[in-house]
Design goal:
Layout: H1 10-39, H2 44-66, H3 78-101, H4 104-111, H5 114-126, H6 132-149, H7 161-180, H8 186-208, H9 214-240, H10 243-246, H11 253-265, H12 271-292
Helix pairs in contact: 1-3, 1-9, 1-11, 2-3, 2-8, 2-9, 3-7, 3-8, 4-7, 4-11, 4-12, 5-6, 5-7, 6-12
C-alpha cells in the first residue's frame, strides 16, 4: 500500500469484524435449519457427509483464491488432529440428531453450555487456573441448563440431552483447537476434521444412503457451503475485533432460532427456554469478561454455533 493510501481506522476494523461475525452466525443458523429440515427424511450421517463434503470444496476454493496454496493445509501432530476430528464428529451427530426432536431455539439454548464446559475442562486439559468467580459462573450457568431441560418434570425430554452432549464434545474440540492454533493455519484446522468426517460418514453410506431429490440435493449443497462460509466469516470477525466485542454476538443465533422455528415449524419457545437462556447468556458473558481480564491472550469461549462447525 502506498504511503498516500488511507489506513482503515480502528473503529472501522472493529465494525467490519462485527459485521463478519453477525453474518457468519446467521449463516450457521441457516445451516442448522437446513439440517433440521433434511433430518426428517435422511440419515444424520448423510447430512454430515454433505455438510463436510461441500464444505471441503469451499475451503479448498478459499485456499486457492486467497493464497497460501495447499501447503497451508499441511497436517501436524496427527494424534491431536484425529482427537479433535472425533470430538467434532461426535458433536455434529449429537446436535443434528437433537434437531430432529427439538425446536431450533431449544437446541441452541442448551448448546450455550459449551463455554461452561470449556471453562471447567480447561483445568484438567490445559492446566489453566479457574478462580472462584468463574467457577461460580459455571455453576450458575448449569442452573440455566436445568431450567431449559427441566429434568424430573412432566415436560422433560431425554432428547434434550443430545445438544448438551454436543456442547461437551464441542468443548473438547475447542480445547484441542487452542493447542492447534500455535502450529496450524485456520484453513488446516477446518480442513482436516471435515476430511475425516467425510471419510467416516462415507463408510456408512452403503447402508444409509438415500438418493435425494433435486431440490433436496440443492439444499445439501447450500447447507455445506453456507455453513463453511459462516465459520470462515466468524473467524475473520475475531481477526478484526477483540473477543470481548465479538463473542456477545454469538448469542444472536437464539434470535434466528426463534424466527426460523416459528416461520418453518411454528415452534414457540416456552418461558423456561427464555429464562434458562438468560441465565446461560449472563454466565457466558461473565466468563468472557473474566477471560479478557487475564494477562495473556486466550481463545474466546465457544459460542452456540460451535457444535455444528
Amino acid at each position: 500500500m502506498s504511503q498516500g493510501a488511507a489506513q482503515p481506522a480502528a473503529g472501522e476494523r472493529i465494525g467490519f469484524g462485527i459485521a463478519c461475525a453477525v453474518i457468519g452466525l446467521f449463516g450457521m443458523a441457516v445451516m442448522d435449519a437446513c439440517a433440521k429440515f433434511l433430518g426428517a427424511g435422511y440419515a444424520i450421517s448423510q447430512i454430515i457427509l454433505a455438510r463436510n463434503a461441500f464444505g471441503l470444496v469451499t475451503i479448498l476454493a478459499f485456499v486457492l483464491v486467497a493464497g497460501g496454496g495447499l501447503a497451508s493445509l499441511k497436517p501436524k501432530r496427527p494424534a491431536l488432529l484425529v482427537a479433535r476430528s472425533a470430538a467434532n464428529l461426535g458433536a455434529a451427530f449429537l446436535f443434528f440428531t437433537g434437531l430432529r426432536y427439538l425446536p431450533l431455539a431449544d437446541a441452541f439454548a442448551i448448546a450455550f453450555a459449551a463455554p461452561l464446559f470449556i471453562t471447567a475442562l480447561s483445568v484438567p486439559v490445559l492446566g489453566e487456573h479457574v478462580g472462584i468467580r468463574r467457577w461460580a459462573a459455571v455453576i450458575f450457568g448449569f442452573v440455566g441448563v436445568l431450567v431449559v431441560v427441566q429434568p424430573g418434570t412432566a415436560t422433560f425430554r431425554v432428547e434434550a440431552l443430545l445438544p448438551l452432549g454436543a456442547a461437551l464434545s464441542y468443548a473438547i474440540a475447542m480445547l484441542i483447537g487452542r493447542k492447534q492454533t500455535k502450529y496450524l493455519t485456520t484453513s488446516a484446522i477446518l480442513f482436516w476434521p471435515s476430511l475425516i468426517a467425510v471419510g467416516v460418514t462415507a463408510l456408512m453410506m452403503p447402508a444409509q444412503w438415500q438418493t435425494p431429490s433435486l431440490p433436496d440435493f440443492g439444499l445439501f449443497v447450500f447447507m455445506g457451503v453456507i455453513g463453511t462460509a459462516g465459520m470462515m466469516l466468524i473467524t475473520q470477525g475475531y481477526r478484526f475485533a477483540p473477543a470481548a466485542v465479538i463473542a456477545p454476538f454469538d448469542y444472536s443465533v437464539l434470535l434466528w432460532g426463534v424466527i426460523f422455528g416459528w416461520v418453518i415449524w411454528r415452534d414457540v419457545p416456552g418461558p423456561n427456554v427464555w429464562i434458562g437462556s438468560a441465565i446461560l447468556i449472563a454466565s457466558g458473558l461473565y466468563i468472557l469478561h473474566r477471560e479478557t481480564r487475564k494477562p495473556k491472550p486466550v481463545q474466546p469461549p465457544a459460542g452456540p454455533m460451535g457444535p455444528t462447525s
